[in-house]
Amino acid sequence: MASSSASVSQPAAPSPVQKLSFGCLLCFIYAYNSRVLDFTVPFLHLPLLLGIIAVIGALLGGGWFTTFTSRTGVLYLALTCYFALGAPFSYWRGGSVAVLRGWVRTVIVWALIVGLTVTCRTCKSLLNTIFFASATAAALGLVAGKTMEGGRLSLAGGQFDNPNYFAAGLLIGLPFAWRLYSGRPGVWHRGVAVGLGGTIFLGILKSGSRAALVALAAMFLLAILRAPLIQKILLVSSAGILFVAVFAAMPNYLRERFLTLADPQAQPQDDQSSEPDLTASAAGSTRERKALLMRSISITLNHPLLGVGVGQFSAYVFDEDKRLGVPKEPYLGTHNSYTQLSSEAGIPALLIFLGILVISWRRLGRLIHAARRDLRPEAQDVYRTALAVQACLAGLYTFFFFFHMAYEVFPHIIIGVALVASSTGESELKRLGLQQPRPSENTSAAPQLQASTDPRRVIRDSTLRSR
């Protein structure tokens, strides 16, 4: 009798064209996330060329457009159409059209990730590429970066010239250091994971990004909630030691900057300190962000349907202050990705975006729940991958509260990674005979699901089926 597991559909092996396209995609993601070409041969525009080759290969390989038939794909199409619908009514139509073109490139990159990453092996290659790209960016920053006023580290040019963008680019690679460390017992692999992970962590701290610090706390909280009891104790104790050591070794100006998270009115305790202005500036930045948040909420309420136009919050606020005779500030964004969308594109755009985030999170959560009790190496690999990606989402969603980057490429790279980690992980669990919980299942099915995820029961059932 044929095994029932044979009826489970397996993803088709990638064709040579798809393999070439996926290789170009990996090179593109590495170049884009590491920014290494900004320091070497920026005039060649290699990321653009790699992206074009990947798109052509994806089209020739077939199946690329099916990525938009998933729920997440439909929401991306809906969000793009809604942006286009609001462009003619934008406060500055030309500016919105330029942002819309950039958004189309973002959606194309997302679709390439989802359409070309079709197996667990390619998914792991994608995660490792993101990790090594973040480590490269961190190393470039520490070795050849620039130190801004206030001692904040960033890259000298390119998109990561902003310390907040720099910190966000490093943040999305950090959870994959844990995945590499826990998934490879060899000393060499663990040494690489610790060394490169430490480089990323140091780069994040030296960026002085308070948003990244809060995002790190969100990642750590998720790790504690997901870990068994003994690991919870180890995590809390080791994190406490690390926090005290890092905080003690941190330069005074960065320490006082991070302290303004707790007290925006903080002032340097030592009036003779060489950095009193830096601390006051950090506190002023916190108050300014709160003012921008309230301003973006006010614009959302006044323009709830279409907003003031994608990318036009800064121009709208600047001209409005000029009209009212208020002292004008430089062009500033919302410093919040959620209110960036609601104020610039309307509340419906925000709801669509939240739908994308919720679907990505819930699919990973179901995958983690299904795989965590199975002790087989394949299931544990799925579990570690899903947990690392969900930790990355936790940090990213938290970072969204403190910085505006809803249209940028690298957040949507991670959202695409979440989708492929879920789909390839689900296929692997089906191959192993595990069933994943679904939201539509009623509570009466819960005992059966619990039994099916017991490793001894799964092994016994698979043995009986093979007979």
Shape: globular
Instruction: Tell me the structural class.
Output: mainly alpha
Kindly report the average pLDDT value. Answer: 80
Number of helical segments with 4 or more residues: 19
Instruction: Please give the order of strands in the largest beta sheet.
Output: 1-2
Described by strand count, sense and barrel closure, the largest sheet is: 2 strands, antiparallel
Strand content: under 5%
Q: What is the N-to-C order of secondary-structure elements (H for helix, E for strand)?
A: HHHHHEEHHHHHHHHHHHHHH
- Count the beta strands: 2
What is the CA-CA span between the terminal residues? 8 Å
- What is the helical fraction, as a range of percent? 55-70%
What is the CA-atom radius of gyration, in angstroms?
23 Å
Count up the domains. 1
Could you please describe the fold and organization of this structure?
The chain has a two-stranded antiparallel sheet. The N terminus and C terminus are likely disordered. The protein starts with 15 loop residues before the first helix and ends with a helix. The protein is mostly helical and 467 residues long. It has one domain.
